[in-house]
Design brief:
five-stranded mixed beta sheet, 43% strand
Length: 690
Amino acid sequence: MAWLPALLALGTAGMAWGQTSAEVPPVGAAPAPTAPAAPTGKFLPRVAMHLETEHGKIVAVLTVNETEAASIRTNAGGFSPQQRAQVAAERLTGLLQAGLTASDIVARPAAKPLWDVEARGGTLLLATPEEADAHRHMSPEELARAWVKALRQLIGQPPLTLSPASLVVPLGETRTVKVGGAATAADVQVGSDNAAVSVADFDPARRLLTVRGHAPGRNTITVQLAPGRGVAAVSLPVAVMKYAGQVAPSVTVQVTGRPDASPDLVTQAAYAGLIRALSLEDGAQVTLTDAPRFAAPLAAGEQTAAVFPLRLSGPDLLPVTAKAAVNVVNTPVTPQPPSTLFYSNNPEQVKRSQTLFTGRLRPASTARLDYHHQNMSGQLLVFHVDLVNASDAPATVQVIAGLSQPGGDTVQVGRRAGAAFLKSLNGDAGLVLPVPPRGRVPLVTQRLGPGLTVSGLMQLQCLSGGPLTVRVSAGGDTDTLTAPLARVFMAGAGANPLAAPSGGVGPAAGDAASPYIFPRPLITLSGKYVVDRRWAFVTLGDKDALRDSSGKLKLFGNYGADYQVDLTLTNPTRDTRQVGVYFAPGAGPAAAVFQVDDGPIQEFDPFEPPNERELARVTLAPGETRVTRLRTIPLNGSAYPAQVVARALERRPAPPVPPGPSPPATNPAGAGPVTPAAAVTAAPPRKVSL
């Protein structure tokens, strides 16, 4: 046969390398590696041959790095598959030791129809028609090229590979890397440039490298061959990073409101809960991918929920994509009238960064804070109202607030704050905020530009824990305004800057209390008016000035205090008469906010004396006596004293008395007939642009 000389040459070469029939291993013997360990330098692939049985026939398998490179199923030239594979293994081993590379292996046509697998000009394997047919009816050329492809891939395989080639490990967590390549697991060694940042453990059985992050930073893990196994190494860059933050999956916040909490308050509470659910690392930013809103009020005892999808990110921080569920519950709280008024108005004109007021909110007590300050420093200030818990126990506080955005008109700023507060107070509309131990809750954080005035009223009822410090300050800390949590809250919850607890601020406990602290800010006055007699005048903010506990300081104007004015109106005439009730400033321009007999809140823009504004018209039947109750709060920026005036309007003739009915019922005091409350007509509320 034409191909016999080449086959004989191959066989002779095999015998020349010492392989005899007596040395042929039995069928099923373990593979015998024929590549010796590399003495120095280059890594040498491991070449071996083993036998398998397939359909009762012996198959000789040539392997490189324990992976099949070629299988021989037929005899050729008197040589068995085992002998042919053994010769190929020995020749390949010698060539590798001599520096054979994958590109040195080629397929070439030999004496037709044979094809050679050559390495540096010598034959490694011969593809015969019989052998090709035994390989799923391939042609000799196809078989030779398949052997070449497999040999090249295996010989060219790097000793060590890593997947992935680099690694980011969250602080305190582990990540794994697959160690691949031609080297055996026993030949692998692992080292670390900086074990303080990360360390790595290698599992030979699974060929897995487990890297644990110990500290933020960067490190290089080196995977290399053991001494005597050749020179090969790969580097694994490792970055240990913190997550941008943590997101609590669910948070519950409480509001109060009778008969319900408004959609704005519920929205504000939801964003306060979102802030409470977030714990951010320095430099982290928050991106809301959706902004839930509440369109319906929340009845007392009911709850609702919103889900905030968000993403946390930042330089050298691992991004976090998560959803925070915030449950808002309208929890009734038994109102407790304020026992103390904290008055923050000294100095009214702020010319430098400073603490403006400090007061102590005692356990199970209620305090009202009234502040009004104008920035005259010539630069931007940031205005703060904070609740500080210097104790080791948590506390909770109900906060009812009426706040105004800073403005240039000091009287209008005070009006907006007072009107918002009285509306919230009337409906017990507030937030229940937890104050963590050794922590701080920023209630107000506002940008106060030069020349602008900030004003607000807040009622703080300590529901548990305490005592707490109420701190009012102004300074140049603009970082607060750009803090990620502050931006999320202010953008989401609207213009009202009532905020949520900040994270982990350790407060100082030694703040000295401010002197402008006044007990019992509830003032009850009365007046009487008889139709066709002298007008009735009830003066607000004059001789009834609140005094501090020492009796030395007076709060002229009683700003922020509650006034209840009971007007007894009597009509002794025989005609039905109308009595007008008015607000009249007396010391200068004043705005006003009033409630008449539990009616709607009325707001009045600033106006000058001797003008007046009508609060109500009361219709009195002949002989009738009526008590009309007014509620008001002296507003920051307005001039006091001012007066409530009652006087009769035009006379009306008495209607004819129908025959037969019983006389009208009289009140217990015998002051006259009792008429329905609907006979009192409050002045229509004025819509004011805020």
